[in-house]
Amino acid sequence: MILAPQAPNEQERLLELMRYEVLHTQYEEDFDQIVKLASSICQTPISTITLLDIHKQWFKAKIGIDNTDGARDTSFCGHAILQSDIMEVSDALTDERFHDNPLVLDDPKIRFYAGYPLVSPAGYTLGTLCVIDNVPRSLTDEQKFTLRTLGNQVMKLFELRLKNKEELVRNQLIEEQKKKLEESKAIQHKIISIIAHDVRGPVASVKAMIELTKEKKLTEAEITELMDLLDKQLDGTLGMLTNLVEWGSILLKKESLSLERVTLGVLTERLLNDLQPFTSIKENKLINRVSKDCKVWADENTLRFMLRNIIGNANKFTSKGIISIASEKMDNGMVKISITDSGCGMPESVQKHLFNPTKRQSREGTHKEKGSGLGLILTKEFAEAMNGHVEVQSKEGEGTTVSIFIPVAVSSES
Q: Keywords of this protein's UniProt record, alphabetized (predicted)?
């Protein structure tokens, strides 16, 4: 017995076989029909579409044989892939290559074999279309023509299968690009809306300060005090814009939130200091009731953005009142962060659509402030992204409480 040799270009041949992605795939009706037709026309009980891997032969389609694969070195197809045309073995017992081959001496007791090489357009042989019989014989010219035609049809099906897959991948990439473009447009629109929502009010306040100064109705001491307030106002606005840019960058890059332990007391203290110039213009008092040692599991910049939006809304609908922020550890492993104001509250008709982006309402504040109605919608979106949620309680004429529920951060020492 002579073992099947490897092809001179074996490495490249294997790469070509892998490129077609047909090895060890499910059986397919188109290929099954080809082996049935080859077996019928060549009048043989066995026919296979055989693909040659590095150590194995595997049948993409088969009839008359139970095995799904076999050893390559004892295979007839391992010899056939080295031929340029049909390799025909009329009687394996008289052929020195196969007379003592286990496939001849034992099942399936091959006597006759004819295999046509399946050659890719690039010139690499992937396997064979073969017909097998248990008795010695030869193919007629017509049967050989049929075997060649069917073998070429197998390669055309391989090519079509590959092109269909490539087309599917291309279509998927196009759809992904279209989806990304749509998401990018939506994100850009949202960023613009947020900037309008968060920056319009502070800029209007700065403009009002400048107008008061230009009217020259203030004393020098009042102007100095006003300029200090203006300086703080601008610092707060710049900080707000910085956070907006960071948040917009996260959305556009599709990055996940960076969840970490955040000391809530420190965050709220700094935030209220930044917001004090805004609230003092409307003579609102800020009260911080957040526990200093309270830690939550959150993205710090995003949480700061959320709290700024809620407190900004509270300030918008409150005048000469109180805005407080408090924290409470819940039994379910969450921290409840509540922002309560003594402002004008909301009617039930408004509360019903607070979190509906298509029905959001922008109400004027107590000083005719404008907004986009996005603040709470964004807060809800971010809370859910941090495994939390938002609740709102409000009564018209009595004020509003917005509660953010965020997972508590367990101490690393516990």
A: Kinase, Transferase
